[in-house]
């Protein structure tokens, strides 16, 4: 499996998780921590302009979905 194929698998895993659970992966849940760390690393690459061009559009889809499920503090 190439790096690009592994990247797409991780991207699909995070997209599916958010679609099913209607929330972002949590850093506090062991099973979700890997997805969150992957997402944060990709976001750092994206912000630095180092994310590969073919991945940018797919990552933008992930960001749009993540914005929809952004955590809102309910303790106000």
Automatic annotation (TrEMBL):
Domain of life: Bacteria
Protein name: Helicase associated domain-containing protein
Species annotation: Xylanibacter ruminicola
């Amino acid at each position: 499996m190439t790096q690009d194929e592994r990247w797409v698998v991780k991207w699909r895993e995070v997209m599916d998780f958010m679609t099913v659970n209607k929330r972002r992966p949590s850093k506090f849940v062991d099973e979700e921590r890997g997805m969150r760390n992957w997402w944060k690393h990709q976001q750092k690459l994206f912000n630095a302009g180092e994310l590969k061009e073919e991945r940018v559009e797919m990552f933008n889809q992930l960001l749009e979905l993540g914005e929809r499920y952004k955590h809102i503090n309910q303790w106000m």
